[in-house]
Amino acid sequence: MERELYFREATEKDVDHIVEMLADDVLGSQRERYEQPIPKSYLQAFKAIETDPNNELVVASDGDEVVGVQQITFTPYLTHQGGWRASIEGVRTSASVRGEGVGTKLIQWAIHRAKERGCHLIQLTTDKQRPDALRFYEKLGFKATHEGLKLKL
What we know:
Acyl_CoA_acyltransferase; Bact_Acetyltransf; acyltransferase activity, transferring groups other than amino-acyl groups
């Protein structure tokens, strides 16, 4: 059955369910803290995202149910002749809808939004422990053209 999704910016009331989705997998369960009440750090991060015009925390909703989330950050660069790029982070779908195309629609929405914002490039990373995610993004046209590095602080 095709889901009727709509996309909107997340509200503070969504944070609880967003954290639940972020924690609902093998890697997320090791780094997130889904508990009641939600740790204040999540609400503080939400406020920072909400007030930054170059950050959008977007949820996919099916009726009243939030079934997906992603954060898009828009960054100006001096490279590429002073172009803008979009970075996609924290993409998750609810376990109840995995495999039903919600993730594809989230990424397609992000691509459209990046074009609206005048971006010349979209970038994202996925953990090397997520080979299925890598195949998913490649199927949507993303290419592994760079090696990404991270330093935990």
